[in-house]
Amino acid sequence: MVALCDSTLVRQFKPLYNVGFPKPTSRLNIELLSDLELEEYFKAHFLQIFIEQMANIPFPRIHSAKEEEPKEIRPDLNVRLLCPDCKNPTPNIIEEFASGDLVCGDCGLVLGDRIIDTRSEWRTFANDEGDDPSRVGAAANPLLDGSQLDTVISRRDGGSGTAKDLNKVHGRATAVKGEKNLIQAYKEIAAMCEAIGLTRHIADIAKQLYKRAEEEKLLRGKSTESIIAACIFIACRQENVPRTFKEICAITRVPKKEIGRCFKILISNFETGVGTMASEDLMSRFCSMLSLGMEVQKAAVELTKKRNELGVLAGKSPVSVAAACIYLASHLYGQPKSTKEIANVTGVSEVTIKNSYRGLYNEREKLLDQKYGNFKNLPAP
């Protein structure tokens, strides 16, 4: 047996000696090993050498993760609609768009009814005449309590006018008084916002605030216009496009004090997130209306911030401070605007602008550096 191990096994694994397999140090080492031990010895070293030789092969093949990982067997979850009568593995299902049914094309069995069409919806911008391709009604309006989803009588009947009269009578009979007032208020809010160039988003915020005030019944006895004006004023402040009380008063027939009372009630009862209005918030719009450059606007904003730090013009309204800063900055950069022009834009009187400018002129060297312009261009108050 020892001779067999020495001759057969060594002869069998002799090619391994040529690739670096360690030869037994002596005949005694091989003779001391049994057949099984010798076989395991050669197999272990052969596997190690094979791995090392494969690592040295140029351009080895890339084994992807899909090849290495075993395929996972999963159930087929695809839902196939089969006709229970035909039981055809390749069903012929037809969708009838007019009735909204799923029908088997072979036997005529109705498999489903009142299905939902997920394709795009058609809209129409025509007047009351002609066909309306839309298949659904309007979307729900969060500003109303669902009345826009009620069924109404069509106004089109071929020109006789009967349907129009029925529509009017039905609307009066089913109208809710509270919602009728809301709709009228919403129309006034939209008209006022459009008059002063406010976006639809700001108008929607004002409508939401008005509805909340009506729900909580906080402003009983106040006129509708004063409540609307206060809601628009708060909506502008929330969206960082503030408007002054005078600008809001210009589009209403309500005095400034009445709007101020409604404003205080709203901000004290609702979390509006509205803080005090700063002068720099008005600079961009006022400078744009006066056709002033960006350098004038930057200087006016910097002047306002420095004024706050030094306490100059303390107690003055933000609009008056903004008007005086714009007047100073426009002369500083050689783009002078008169007090009359600034007064027409800001709504501040010329006397107020001159008085505020006097305070800024006396502290001009503390408020601005020479880099902003030549102080010699500033007119004496």
UniProtKB/TrEMBL annotation:
GO terms for biological process: RNA polymerase II preinitiation complex assembly. The keyword Repeat applies. It is found in: Nucleus. GO terms for cellular component: nucleus; transcription preinitiation complex. Keywords: Metal-binding, Nucleus, Repeat, Transcription, Transcription regulation, Zinc, Zinc-finger. Residues 78-112 form the TFIIB-type domain. One of its GO terms (molecular function) is TBP-class protein binding. InterPro entries: Cyclin-like_dom, Cyclin-like_sf, TFIIB, TFIIB_CS, TFIIB_cyclin, Znf_TFIIB. SMART domains: CYCLIN (SM00385). General factor that plays a major role in the activation of eukaryotic genes transcribed by RNA polymerase II. Associates with TFIID-IIA (DA complex) to form TFIID-IIA-IIB (DAB-complex) which is then recognized by polymerase II. This is Transcription initiation factor IIB.
